[in-house]
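re: ur question from yesterday

yeah so i grabbed the chain u mentioned. its 191 aa long if i counted rite. heres the sequnce exactly as i have it in my notes:
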Amino acid sequence: MHTALLLVDIQNDYFPGGKRELVNPLAAAKKAYMLLQCFREHGGFHVHIQHVSLKPDTTSFIPGDRGTDIHDAVAHFEGEALVQKHYPNSFRGTNLLEILKSWDIERVVIAGMMTHMCVDATVRAAGDLGFQVIVAEDACATLDLKYGETVIPAEYVHKAFLVAFRSYGQVMTSEQILAHLAADQSYPKSN
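ran it thru and got these structure tokens back, copy pasting raw so excuse formatting
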């Protein structure tokens, strides 16, 4: 079974000094890098996804701003697939589905930022499009949210979405994902 790694929005604006800093983005990025390196070393399919806002009043992911750049922790190399998106769902208005179909992908491993927004929209879309989905729980990050006067800590936001992701596929640590792919002999698969 061909598997692709989707790295969703691991961009500078989510890191310290960025315009929308998350809780523990560096820890998540290190786990995403571990997955990326394994896919790279074994010739596996992988796609960097980059959010660029088109909203005129945006305060983050501004076109041409360094905050939109892929973070150095998972740097995009020349020749690697890069999909720019303008909506939370990585498939909406992009060529991501066409790329995955051209590689005969049946399963996606998803890591990225933010768990409750773009990762969520991408997980649900991938499941709805018929892909088997695995979410790398430790390679995703989010932030504290506020509802009325209640502040919901990022840890609880993250875990609530991980529970929901189980309706669309599997949720595993990065180490479990690599062991799972190796055990079912579907990894690596590449051109």
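noticed a couple things. The beta strands are 2-8, 45-51, 81-85, 105-113, 132-141, 145-147, 150-152, 169-172. also The mean pLDDT is 95.
anyway ttyl
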